[in-house]
């Protein structure tokens, strides 16, 4: 696949600079847009050979820009994505897809009608260890999933515009949905605000699925050390992924019943190898691929919408100190997200990839 410079990045802040770097290394970066001098200076340092603009106008009118990657604050995602779609561009939006569920639904509908790619930045879904873990689940190696635990803790960047749940949990929720292959029916969340009033620094969110699987997601930016661990407990085996030590381990452990008593069967943990691919590079490469081929992204707009619905349910529960919030499990009616992701469906035929939707519609 040739990596033509055809992607513009909006927002060169704390995270956008990583997209700029990755896209440039992949040869796919055509422009950067940031309204602030600091953002533009950062972009000019990272990509001195690429035009940097203060507004999106030059990008919207440049037919060579086929896709945009939006790494701006969440409250700007919807408006920018709408503008990008209207200009005939394929769109990648950082998590969360939008703030409002209705806006996310609108983006999904518009992208589909315009036959544009809509991808959301659920980065962990491009992590080779998570892909290997998903293979352990789909191959049946772990047996039936019973429980998933995800801890994402650190003394990290403390945000004042969003809480730790919205900042960190989208990644964990996306992975859990992929592994379970269903939407939870109930969400319970509790948390505490210690730094800024009403901005939770620590939250524990429980997801309950109608097949009996439970999951808990513990996120905090007020923690003495960095811990990023995902543990999957199956009926046959268990697995853990430590994103700090970069280890995926399969445990041949379970509980058997012997003479009417539950007996733990302990076994060795075996390291599971996974590819060395950098998740962000893999994510950017996937977006370029989708732009060039018209394929539906692994983390498409529907994924973003589902995660957003769970975030809202968790926020409702958080606001009522853990009152359960119900969800509609039918959101997954169109298929299991645990299935091998994408590259099977397309948002448009390959021969019209990159042609603005107006042209496609009138063809
Ligand atoms: N995938 C991940 O792991 C990950 C990690 C951190 C942040 N994020 C997401 O990335 C996004 C940005 O977060 P951040 O931490 O980089 O924020 P930030 O505040 O550090 O940077 C945002 C940048 O966007 C620019 N900007 C604002 N409005 C703009 C517009 N209309 N057009 C172009 N640029 C504009 C700002 O000037 C700033 O430079 C958020 O959605 C956040 O949730 C994702």
What's a concise summary of this model?
This protein has 363 residues and is of the alpha/beta class.
Structure description:
With 363 residues, the chain is of the alpha/beta class. The protein has a domain at 125-341: 2-Layer Sandwich (Dihydrodipicolinate Reductase, domain 2), CATH 3.30.360.10. The chain has ten helices and 17 strands. It has helices at residues 16-26, 37-46, 57-60, 77-86, 101-113, 128-138, 164-180, 279-293, 301-319, 357-362, and strands at residues 7-10, 29-33, 52-53, 67-70, 90-94, 118-121, 145-153, 186-192, 202-208, 214-220, 227-234, 238-242, 247-251, 254-258, 261-265, 269-271, 325-326. Strands 16-13-12-11-7-10-9-8-17 form a nine-stranded mixed β-sheet. Helix 7 crosses helix 9 (301-319). The longest helix has 19 residues, at 301-319. The radius of gyration is 21 Å and the shape is globular. Residues 332-344 and 351-363 have low confidence and may be disordered. Nicotinamide-adenine-dinucleotide (NAD) binds next to loops.
Sequence-ordered SSE layout with sheet pairings:
Layout: E1 7-10, H1 16-26, E2 29-33, H2 37-46, E3 52-53, H3 57-60, E4 67-70, H4 77-86, E5 90-94, H5 101-113, E6 118-121, H6 128-138, E7 145-153, H7 164-180, E8 186-192, E9 202-208, E10 214-220, E11 227-234, E12 238-242, E13 247-251, E14 254-258, E15 261-265, E16 269-271, H8 279-293, H9 301-319, E17 325-326, H10 357-362
Parallel strand pairs: 1-2, 1-4, 2-3, 4-5, 5-6, 7-10
Antiparallel strand pairs: 7-11, 8-9, 8-17, 9-10, 11-12, 12-13, 13-16, 14-15
Helix pairs in contact: 1-8, 4-5, 5-9, 7-9
The structure holds nicotinamide-adenine-dinucleotide.
